Amino acid sequence: MGLFDLFREDIAIDLGTANTLIIHNDKVVVDAPSIVARDRTTGKIIAVGQQARQMHGKTHENIKTIRPLKDGVIADFEASEAMIREMIKSIPSLKKRLIPPALRMVICIPSGITEVEKRAVRDSAQHAGAREVYLIHEPMAAAIGTGVDVQEPKGNMIIDIGGGTTEIAVLALGGIVADKSIKVAGDVFTNDISYYMRTQHNLYVGERTAEEIKIQIGSALDDLENGPEDMAVQGRDLLTGKPKQIMVTYKEIAKALDKSIMRIEDAIMEALSMTPPELAADIYNSGIYMAGGGSMLRGLDKRVSMKTDLPVYVAEDPLRAVVRGTGIALKNIGKFNFLMS
Ligand SMILES: Nc1ncnc2c1ncn2[C@@H]1O[C@H](COP(=O)(O)OP(=O)(O)OP(=O)(O)O)[C@@H](O)[C@H]1O
């Protein structure tokens, strides 16, 4: 270990549209919503993560809550930099250091990202204190985090359904052979539910409520073996303006999400059709891996399996697969040639 190593700390970041996760010393030390609250008058950041999320949708005119990332990429540079900085500051094991450490970071980025968007991630990290920044494509990180050996001469298909993007990639020999990225993922599902509530029930629900509905009773199939119980949903009646409650079934949510899921299915079919035949044969044998929070939607694995006639495996703890993979990449910086410095 060199002298420099004593002052260096390594962290892996999954900078997501919905959630940001950080691994330090093999442990997930940050797992928080990607939200920042800013005071409009002073311009100061007053809260990030969970605390900012609690304010989301409930702010008065002096406070603004911002989601710094949109569709997997940085939409508000200043807010994302502040968010990264505050989240790093909150890591208990780093707080103890008398001298601020030189940070080496591995950050994952969507595969369809432009050079300008890549630059924004790198700059945000550097402004937040990183000395060395390495980037890794999200599907690669998701595959590693799911336990796939990405270096072997064998094709593997991974689908990462996050908040802003669904990334579908065929990986072999440490590289991405075919990929398709679409902006249909968890956030669109949430919007579909809000739209359904407004148009079918005249009920205006906020983003948080729509997301709760998705998590509690969301489904990709309208016929589940053990379907969830109906859910009581409160919001504002669009006709009378009064607060109101209605009961919602999972079958209704399956209907609300159907079109968006069809777009994901189409993207998967397109990625499969771009796959070279030898790798297609491998995928036929090994099936498809799914990760990301969106993959937790009830029945989605079954629906993709029915569409592709392939077995589908959902990662253990899908919300953490990407950061787990990023953490493994961090430990193997010298070994993994697909890490971009
Ligand atoms: N049980 C669940 N069922 C359905 N969706 C879920 C569930 N739990 C979380 N989600 C959704 O998963 C999404 C977040 O997933 P994830 O943290 O993997 O995304 P992200 O990495 O922040 O986004 P991106 O990769 O697009 O930048 C959110 O839209 C959230 O509502």
From TrEMBL:
One of its GO terms (molecular function) is ATP binding. Keywords: ATP-binding, Cell shape, Cytoplasm, Nucleotide-binding. The keyword Nucleotide-binding applies. One of its GO terms (biological process) is cell morphogenesis. SUPFAM superfamilies: Actin-like ATPase domain (SSF53067). InterPro entries: ATPase_NBD (IPR043129), MreB (IPR004753), MreB_MamK-like (IPR056546). GO terms for cellular component: cytoplasm. It is found in: Cytoplasm. CDD domains: ASKHA_NBD_MreB-like. The keyword Cytoplasm applies. ATP binds at residues 17-19, 163-165, 211-214. Pfam families: MreB_Mbl. It comes from the Bacteria. Belongs to the FtsA/MreB family. Forms membrane-associated dynamic filaments that are essential for cell shape determination. Acts by regulating cell wall synthesis and cell elongation, and thus cell shape. A feedback loop between cell geometry and MreB localization may maintain elongated cell shape by targeting cell wall growth to regions of negative cell wall curvature. NCBIfam families: mreB, PRK13927.1. Forms polymers. This is Cell shape-determining protein MreB. It comes from Owenweeksia hongkongensis (strain DSM 17368 / CIP 108786 / JCM 12287 / NRRL B-23963 / UST20020801). The gene is mreB.
